[in-house]
């Protein structure tokens, strides 16, 4: 069975860990074939800091599935140290709101060096995964640089003549990490996305899939941005595979992260139904939490209510199983 | 008193520490003016590893004088950790014979980033020194990239038709660190030096000096390479300041390091007198160890014998004092 999943960072990675755990418990599909999981990872929160190219979502998936993740935190490396970061601070290096661990820096050094030599991000990611053996084929959504920027009010800027407050754009990471998404996002822009192409293998992985899965990743800045890569959404609309998704919203609040701040920015309600609506042009099945069982689904979307809290490995594997079962129903 | 010193790595840095300690004990010169020390640092053992631009000699001087050096080792940072290096090894990153510490990597990240933005090495060095406050003005000998390569036998190469064994060139660091200079150097080449220009301020620091000092640095790959920067040796010949040097050789062996392997490569005997000979066109005074007091000096060079082992801070300051006293005699 060929499973293709789109994924952002922590939430997506945890779901994928559960998916692999579930698949491990049934090593072949009903027809006796092996499972092949392809993950299309979000790269729009990538950022260059201290001269290092950092791909937070790809790394979170790679570390989580490869056994290197900080388990409680959900991002960054287990057993991390901060020798480099302490020194960068002593030099007064900016920005100081993003702290890179030493172990993590080694990954960024490898990536930055390979990119500098001209390798595309997809090749770099494959090379890094050769060490981590995540058990999936991890593809960046695009080899082209795409960066999410967030337009926020600029209290120090001059208001326009008509009184409109001044705004400024900051990198998504600055809004997310430094400002904790607490400053309202006036607009969320994926800079560079119009010119971007899907990375090699991405469209094929969607077209050839037996199931396409949307884990409970951020519907705006993770799944939403992946879908905005030219050609990608069309491929999902066109695939014969059922598309099933897991709601990132439970009872009107994000399971984790600050998806509500992103949904508000694009004028969408923070609810399981509203997120399903964003995917209504291709979504076949939608898993929601029991409390959201009365969500009104877009036409043609099959709703199923199951416990959605990824509280431990078993619970997470059960969600993944429910997603695959729903896909089987739809097939 | 304006003192200009040429310097390589560990030996030069330790001597300079002693020089500053000595000057601290007499905060003004005989005429009542302040001391100003300019150090022209060797950059020909610079190397790019893991995408990081590393300047071992400049950093050794900066860390030693700025209080960050690993005191016993003489290079690298005190309290160093190796989180990044362990991970790079796990990725199989080459080369594995050069281990970078985490604290040190922060310096290289700062430097690599600034060079990437177009700042010349002299500006980068000044920026790094703004943190370390080494108490000297530290100038790279050149802003242009110069790399010492060493020609060694290549046992895996095809011999020439006439039976001449095959050779290959390796970066100086590979010969020094990986091969411990134990493989004979057929030739030592400063690649790029013909096209290089002295960094801003270098020629002026020599012309305007009251004393020019050669610490006991490697006479081939440190002092020798600095002197080979076009215009630099001529400036030392032309300066009105006395030029005094400290022999890096005591009783036929290097005080530390593997200068003998370098001297052999250029066909020069490992002796205090033979090194003085290399500098005979500008040298005014030469400090040797008591056991070398009968060294035959080139014409016009005043020899003085004093204990030369930099065994502790006091002994090192005494050597620096002897060098300045010898310069005073010559003036």
From TrEMBL, chains A, B:
UniProt keyword terms in alphabetical order: Magnesium, Transferase
InterPro entries linked: CofD (IPR002882), CofD-like_dom_sf (IPR038136), FbiA/CofD (IPR010115)
The protein's enzyme class: transferase
EC numbers, comma separated: 2.7.8.28
Transmembrane segments: none
Magnesium recorded as keyword: yes
GO molecular function: LPPG:FO 2-phospho-L-lactate transferase activity
Pfam families per record: CofD
Domain of life assignment: Bacteria
Protein name per its UniProtKB record: LPPG:FO 2-phospho-L-lactate transferase
Annotated organism of origin: Kineosporia succinea
